[in-house]
């Protein structure tokens, strides 16, 4: 054991917290409380069930410099695909207004930052400290150290035709940490498509510790299109947590393609009767990438519905973890849930751990789950080759077909196109290396 | 066209083909008949390059080339086509995509330019009409949700589009009702050409009433034990296979 890794990471993070500028004194006690929550929980150890397949030893041993607001805002984000007319750009955790395009947002759609409206009466809830294990400790660290906590609000006049594009960039040549934080609040009957695009290049090793809190009012509908393209040397830990009121609906279309190590906790609580959540996605763990996705749905009310459908691909020495869970509370009768996890291994060194879980506390429910992990079907491969396709094209076609089921659900055209292109490029490279 | 000499093939330790000889000339249609387990599908698989077979002796020459040294895709591009006994369902890989990719691979090998979308569709539509297939099948996954008959028609459609030099049809007649059998047989008959050879691997004489072969071979115990004209198929239908084995022993 070397001297560096012997230091308790909490001690190092405490030093960073003590040095952090007190730019919002009104919340100093809130932030201190959040930090103590993190310190109390510490980094997860090998015996922590929630982190069974994901070791954070590498992350715990690293030191990351915080980025000052001025420094972050001086950067010019590289060109990015556009997913709609309204865009907010976060650079290293700060709202970059110059790069954003928020003029022309419909009247009911509002985006504000805690960093600049520090005395807003609402602000306390922007720094919500979560409970419930998993990435809880990192969400607390985020609350203690985040730069601009954004509040995105949609009034009941906003519909799912409206697309808000949130671009979350990690930039700079230096090793750095950022804590992007967004609170999304949908009024009763509101609708919104929210694209969350994480980007980072390979120039530096970074740590992105993101939190997205969602409060979905009655009959509201939020569709999240998430594309994770973090830099290949970086760590990303993220918690998306949604509370859904009566008949609210959450739809998530996720594509996790980047980072060296990424962990996503995606949690939805169906608190009102008739609420529903549909979480679907794809991850591609190639090279030595480690991608851990943990979707979890809690049925807390009568007549709630959920679907989880994930597809994972691992290649090279890549490793995927997909641990989906459904909890049906006592009294949440007539709940319906389905969990599917299908996984594809493209090489002997790749690994995927999948474990769908089901905890049922009510007796009148319909819940099922299934998981498969396998390789490309050799019979199908031979069939395609016997028609003249070379092995690479045949593998490519079958891998695309495997992922295609997820793409076909991404019903936001420019997003689907961007994900498709990114996926295809990676697949091409992967197959080039393999042959 | 195709020259198989003393072919010995095993799967694991089990010997399937034991010195098979077969000569197929250009323009001929040969039928290979035999009971279950006689090695018919192994022969078809070996010709197409399927994995899992070990060739321990013998040679297969296709137009003078060592066929066994070629990968499955090289064989396909050189004009060898296998119609599968059990066509594979491949959800997510579009039928039209496969046809186009396959056709372009074959055309490239022949030094022909790729067909544009218009020409391709024209060709495929014509062949689909011939096979009495609904055009909507083009935009489905390969064989996805196809009935047994549709799958077999799809195999013949692929053959018609790719226009191979050597076609091996592995029990394409099995599982077909009489109408579908006629459509498939018509499709095969239209493919008869002085420059093309067709090998029909079959269980029953049924198909051979529609596609009359130039030669019929009986495959038994991993070898061709008897060859004859189309009349042999009828004789087999009436008398079974045992007499062939008995007479072969006597000889």
Could you name the key traits of this structure?
heterodimer; A: 435 residues; alpha/beta; 2 domains; 13-stranded mixed β-sheet; 10-stranded mixed β-sheet; 23 strands; B: alpha/beta; Rossmann fold; 4-stranded antiparallel β-sheet; 39% helix
Give a short overview.
The complex is a heterodimer of chains A (435) and B (251). Chain A has 435 residues and is α/β, with parallel strands linked by helices. Chain A contains ten helices and 23 strands.
Q: C-alpha Rg of chain B, in Å?
A: 18 Å
Q: Multimeric state of these chains?
A: heterodimer
Kindly report the name of the CATH homologous superfamily of chain B.
Answer: P-loop containing nucleotide triphosphate hydrolases
Shape by Cα distribution of chain B: globular
Shape of chain A: globular
Overall residue-averaged pLDDT value of chain A: 92
Can you tell me the number of structural domains of chain A? 2
- Strand residue content of chain A: 35-45%
List segments of chain A where confidence is low: pLDDT < 50 over at least 5 consecutive residues: 1-5
The largest inter-chain interface, given as chain pair and residues per side, is: A-B, 23 and 30 residues
What helical percentage do the residues of chain A reach? 10-25%
Report the end-to-end length of chain B measured between terminal Cα atoms.
29 Å
Treating each run of at least 4 consecutive H or I residues as one helix, how many helices of chain A? 10
Strand order of the largest sheet of chain B: 6-9-10-3-11-12
Number of helical segments of chain B?
Answer: 9
User: Distance between the terminal alpha carbons of chain A, to the nearest Å?
Assistant: 39 Å
Query: What is the CATH architecture assignment of chain B?
Result: 3-Layer(aba) Sandwich
Structural class of chain B: alpha/beta
| Sequence stretches where pLDDT stays below 50 over 5 or more residues of chain B | none
Residues in β-strands, percent of chain B: 25-35%
């Amino acid at each position: 054991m070397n001297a560096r890794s012997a230091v308790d990471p909490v001690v190092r993070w405490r030093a960073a917290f003590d040095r952090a500028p007190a730019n919002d004194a009104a919340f100093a006690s809130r932030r201190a409380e959040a930090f103590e929550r993190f310190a109390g929980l510490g980094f997860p150890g090998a015996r922590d069930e929630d982190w069974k397949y994901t070791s954070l030893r590498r992350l715990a041993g690293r030191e990351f410099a915080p980025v000052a607001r001025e420094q972050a805002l001086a950067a010019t984000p590289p060109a990015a695909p556009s997913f709609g007319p309204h865009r907010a750009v976060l650079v290293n955790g700060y709202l970059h207004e110059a790069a954003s395009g928020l003029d022309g947002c419909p009247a009911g759609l509002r985006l504000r930052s805690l960093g600049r409206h520090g005395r807003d009466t609402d602000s306390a809830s922007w720094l919500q400290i979560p409970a419930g294990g998993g990435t809880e400790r990192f969400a607390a660290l985020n609350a203690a150290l985040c730069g601009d906590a954004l509040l995105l609000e949609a009034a009941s006049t906003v519909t799912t035709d409206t697309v808000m594009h949130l671009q979350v960039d990690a930039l700079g040549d230096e090793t750095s940490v950022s804590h992007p934080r967004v609170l999304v609040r949908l009024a009763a009957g509101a609708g919104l498509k929210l694209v969350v695009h994480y980007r980072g290049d390979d120039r530096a090793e970074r740590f992105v510790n993101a939190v997205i809190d969602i409060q979905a009012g009655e009959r509201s509908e939020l569709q999240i299109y998430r594309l994770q393209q973090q830099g290949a040397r970086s760590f990303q830990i993220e918690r998306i947590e949604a509370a859904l009121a009566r008949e609210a609906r959450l739809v998530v279309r996720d594509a996790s393609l980047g980072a060296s190590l990424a962990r996503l906790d995606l949690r939805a609580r169906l608190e009102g009767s008739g609420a529903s959540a549909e979480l679907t996605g794809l991850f591609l763990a190639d090279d030595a990438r480690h991608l851990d996705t943990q979707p979890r749905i809690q049925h807390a009310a009568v007549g709630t519905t959920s679907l989880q459908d994930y597809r994972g691909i691992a290649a090279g020495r890549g490793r995927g973890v997909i641990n989906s869970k459904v909890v049906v509370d006592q009294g949440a009768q007539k709940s319906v849930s389905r969990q599917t996890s299908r996984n594809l291994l493209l090489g002997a060194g790749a690994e995927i751990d999948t474990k769908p879980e089901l905890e049922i506390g009510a007796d009148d429910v319909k819940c099922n789950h299934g998981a498969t992990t396998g390789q490309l079907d050799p019979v199908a491969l031979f069939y395609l080759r016997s028609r003249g396709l070379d092995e690479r094209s045949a593998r490519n076609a079958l891998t695309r077909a495997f992922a295609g089921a997820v793409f076909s659900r991404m019903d936001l055209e420019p997003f689907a196109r961007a994900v498709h292109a990114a996926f295809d490029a990676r697949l091409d490279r992967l197959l080039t290396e393999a042959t | 066209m195709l020259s198989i000499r003393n072919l010995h093939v095993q799967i694991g330790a089990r010997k399937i083909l034991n010195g098979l000889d077969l000569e197929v000339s250009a323009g001929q249609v040969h039928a290979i008949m035999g009971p279950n387990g006689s090695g018919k599908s192994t022969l078809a698989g070996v010709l197409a390059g399927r994995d899992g077979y070990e060739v321990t002796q013998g040679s297969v020459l296709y137009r003078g080339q060592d066929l066994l040294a070629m990968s499955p895709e090289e064989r396909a591009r050189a004009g060898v086509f296998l119609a599968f006994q059990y066509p594979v369902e491949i959800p997510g890989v579009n039928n039209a995509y496969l046809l186009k990719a396959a056709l372009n691979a074959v055309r490239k090998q022949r030094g022909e330019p790729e067909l544009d979308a218009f020409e391709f569709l024209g060709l495929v539509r014509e062949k689909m009409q011939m096979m009495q297939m609904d055009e909507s099948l083009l935009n489905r996954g390969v064989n996805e949700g196809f009935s047994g008959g549709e799958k077999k028609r799809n195999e013949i459609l692929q053959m018609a589009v790719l226009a191979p030099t050597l076609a091996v049809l592995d029990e394409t007649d099995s599982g077909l009702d009489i109408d579908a059998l006629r459509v498939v047989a018509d499709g095969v008959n239209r493919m008869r050409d002085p420059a093309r050879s067709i090998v029909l691997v079959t269980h029953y004489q049924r198909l051979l009433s529609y596609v009359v072969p130039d030669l019929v071979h009986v495959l038994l115990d991993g070898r061709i034990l008897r060859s004859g004209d189309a009349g042999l198929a009828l004789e087999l239908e009436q008398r079974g296979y045992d007499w062939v084995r008995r007479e072969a022993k006597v000889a």
